[in-house]
Amino acid sequence: MSSAVPARIAVIFYSSTGNVAALAHALADGARTNGADVRVRRVHESAPAEAIASNPRWQGWIDSCTDEYASLDDLEWADAIALGSPTRFGGPAAQLKSFLDTTGGLWFTGVLATKVGTSFTSSSTQHGGLESTILAINNIFYHWGSLVMPLGYAHEHVARVSGNPYGSSFVSRKGATPDNDALTAARVQGERLAIITRDLIIGRNTRPNGAM
Ligand SMILES: Cc1cc2nc3c(=O)[nH]c(=O)nc-3n(C[C@H](O)[C@H](O)[C@H](O)COP(=O)(O)O)c2cc1C
Q1: Could you report the per-residue pLDDT of 135-166, keeping only the tens digit for each?
Q2: Which residue stretches of the chain have pLDDT < 50?
Q3: 173: which DSSP letter?
Q4: pTM of the complete model
Q5: Which one of 88, 121, 133 would you pick to mutate in the ligand 1 pocket, going by the greatest count of ligand atoms within 8 A of its CB?
Q6: All residues at 6 or more sequence positions from 210 whose CB lies less than 8 Å from its CB, including other chains
Q7: Which of 33, 16, 37, 4 is nearest to 189 (CA)?
Q8: Which residues' Cβ are closer than 6 Å to ligand 1?
Q9: Among residues 158, 162, 170, 157, which one has the least CA distance to residue 128?
Q10: How far is residue 110 from each of residues 101, 105, 139, 141, 211, measured CA to CA in Å?
Q11: Which residue among 68, 76, 122, 205 has its CA within the 20 to 30 Å range from the CA of 22?
Q12: For residue 117, what are the β-bridge partners?
C-alpha cells in the first residue's frame, strides 16, 4: 500500500456564534495541508427559535453558516474524527451530544474502534472549562474504542504560544473571535491528526488481517 493513501478526516462540530466553527475550519486546513481528505460538518441546532433570535450573534451565525450537516456515514467514512463544541457549563453542548447519542448502532458494529479521535473547544473565560469540555468529549472516544490524540506540546507553537495540550481552544471573553494564535493551534492539531492517522493506516495496511 502506498504512503500516498490520504487519511480521511471528519471534523464535526457544534457552534452557536461561530468560534468553534472557525477552529473546525482551521483544523481542517491543517489536515488538508498534510494530504488528508477532509469533511467539515456541523450538527443540527436544537435550541428554540426564540432563544436563538434573542442573541443577534447566534441568529447571524445560524443564518450564515453553509456547512453541511453531519451524518453517521461521515463517521463510518472517516479514519479520524475531530469533535468540537463550545464549553457549556464546563462540558460539551447538548447539540453535539445529541448527534453522538445516535451512534449506538455504529458503535455496536465495532467500526468506531478503528478511528483516531481528537477534540477542541472554545469558552468565554480562561478557567471556564476548556479542559473539562475536551476531556468530556474524549470520554465518547474511549467508549467507541478509538485512539485519543491529544494536541500535546510536541509543536513549538503549542509549547511556546497557545499552551493547551488537551486540544486547540479559544477564550472568547468580551465577544472576541478566534485570533491567529488559536487558529494556528487548531491547524497544528489538524496537521498532527493527518500525519498520525496516515501512519496508522500505513501500519494497518501492512498487517495480514488489517486489524488496528
Ligand atoms: C448556555 C451557555 C453556557 C456556557 N457555559 C460556559 C462555561 O461553562 N464556561 C465558559 O467559559 N464559557 C461558557 N459559555 C460561553 C461559550 O463557551 C463561549 O461564548 C464560546 O466561545 C462559544 O463558542 P461558539 O461561538 O462556537 O458557540 C457558555 C455559553 C452559553 C450560551
Answers
A1: 999 999 999 999 999 999 989 998 889 889 99
A2: 1-2
A3: G
A4: 0.96
A5: 88
A6: 204
A7: 33
A8: 15-20, 86-90, 122-125, 128-129, 172
A9: 170
A10: 16, 9, 16, 12, 12
A11: 76
A12: 81, 148
Number of other CB atoms surrounding residue 175 within 10 Å: 9
- At residue 160, the pLDDT reads 87
The residue whose C-alpha atom lies closest to atom 31 belonging to ligand 1 is: 88
Which residue CA neighbors atom 2 of ligand 1 most closely? 88
Evaluate whether 192 touches 154 at the Cβ level (below 8 Å): yes
The residues facing 88 across adjacent strands are 91
Q: Who contacts 64 (Cβ-Cβ below 8 Å, separation ≥6)?
A: none
145 within 8 A of 104, measured Cβ to Cβ = no
Distance 137 CA to ligand 1 centre (A): 15
Set out the domains of the chain in order of their start, with CATH numbers.
8-206 (3.40.50.360)
Nearest CA to ligand 1 atom 17: 123
Residue 162 neighbours by CB distance under 10 Å:
22
Contacts of 2 (CB under 8 A, 6+ apart): none
- Centre of ligand 1 from the C-alpha of residue 167, in Å: 17
At 21, which amino acid appears?
A
Q: What is the DSSP letter of 113?
A: G
